[in-house]
């Protein structure tokens, strides 16, 4: 009798485990890079800001752009339409992660209120009085580390560390001071300007503690920050992005279970296609 009773109890945890695995599999399958365009522009990173806790999208763009983000993200995080300083250049004016969001001092009280009300309660929203007000070009971060423009105020550096809960490093990327424009990274991996030297790549990689790759988006554009937004399970890039660029993105950001070696096969296949 005891043995008979033990049967179902053994099965239940197995079933539960199976359901969990199925859920994880579903999440892994949905993790992918998506091509989209804002009106006629491939600069997705200029008009949107994506983190693990929320996504901001420029107000007044085509509904199509917004719905691409919503279909991928709405089950997990809020997708919010907003403006900053009366412009739609959200991605270049703001910097944020799952802990907080920093806005430039040109952002109006009304805009600040709209964004604050739409974001999850645990996200701290703060305005910064910084001379270099295009924060998205001057700061790039994930949930643990931030790289900042070498000339940014000491006070701003402290606010970034405090509000976003990150370690902060003053850096350049391929001798460019605009770290936010020429680099994009999540907690899984990152992509930097194609002319970044091997030494710089190693140094940045050990600072950030994630794998990095030098690459392009939008068929050869080196402005990674403007052409790509990414979090731990999704990435969005411009419509011009080639399949080779897409496979590099999916590999380094660990989207769709892309293994670094499977990318070689993908590249060979696309090279053969283009030569045929």
What attributes characterize this protein structure?
globular, alpha/beta, three-stranded mixed sheet, single chain
Describe this structure in words.
It is a single chain. The protein is α/β, with parallel strands linked by helices and 276 residues long. Helix content is 41%, strand content 20%. It has helices spanning 2-30, 44-47, 63-73, 90-93, 109-118, 135-138, 154-164, 198-208, 224-227, 243-252, 262-275; strands at residues 32-36, 48-50, 55-58, 79-82, 95-96, 100-104, 124-128, 139-141, 145-148, 167-170, 183-185, 190-192, 212-214, 228-230, 234-238. The strands form five sheets. A three-stranded mixed β-sheet has the order 1-15-14, sandwiched between helices. β8 and β9 form a beta hairpin. α10 (243-252) packs antiparallel against α11. It starts with a helix and ends with a helix.
Mean pLDDT: 85
- The H/E string reads HEHEEHEHEEHEHEEHEEEHEHEEHH
Distance between termini? 69 Å
- The outline comes out as globular
Record field, number of beta strands: 15
């Amino acid at each position: 009798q005891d043995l008979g009773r033990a049967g179902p109890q053994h099965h239940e945890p197995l079933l539960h485990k199976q359901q969990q695995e199925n859920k994880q599999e579903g999440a892994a399958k949905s993790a992918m890079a998506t091509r989209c365009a804002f009106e006629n522009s491939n600069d997705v990173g200029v008009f949107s800001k994506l983190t693990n806790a929320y996504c901001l999208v420029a107000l007044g763009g085509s509904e199509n752009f917004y719905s691409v983000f919503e279909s991928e993200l709405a089950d997990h995080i809020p997708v919010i339409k907003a403006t900053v300083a009366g412009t739609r250049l959200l991605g270049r004016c703001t910097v944020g992660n799952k802990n907080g969001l920093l806005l430039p001092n040109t952002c109006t009280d009304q805009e600040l209120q709209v964004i604050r009300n739409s974001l999850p309660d645990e996200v701290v929203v703060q305005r910064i009085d910084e001379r270099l007000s295009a924060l998205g070009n001057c700061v790039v971060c994930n949930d643990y580390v931030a790289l900042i423009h070498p000339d940014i105020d000491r006070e701003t550096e402290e606010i970034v560390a405090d509000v976003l809960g990150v370690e902060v490093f003053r850096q350049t990327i391929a001798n460019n001071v605009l770290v936010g424009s020429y680099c994009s990274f999540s907690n899984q991996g990152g992509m930097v300007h194609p002319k970044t030297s091997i030494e710089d790549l190693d140094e940045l990689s050990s600072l950030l503690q994630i794998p990095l790759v030098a690459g392009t988006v939008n068929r050869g554009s080196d402005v990674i920050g403007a052409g790509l937004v990414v979090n731990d399970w999704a990435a969005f890039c411009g419509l011009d992005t080639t399949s080779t660029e897409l496979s590099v993105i999916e590999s380094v950001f660990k989207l769709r279970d892309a293994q670094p070696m499977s990318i070689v096969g993908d590249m060979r296949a696309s090279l053969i296609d283009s030569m045929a």
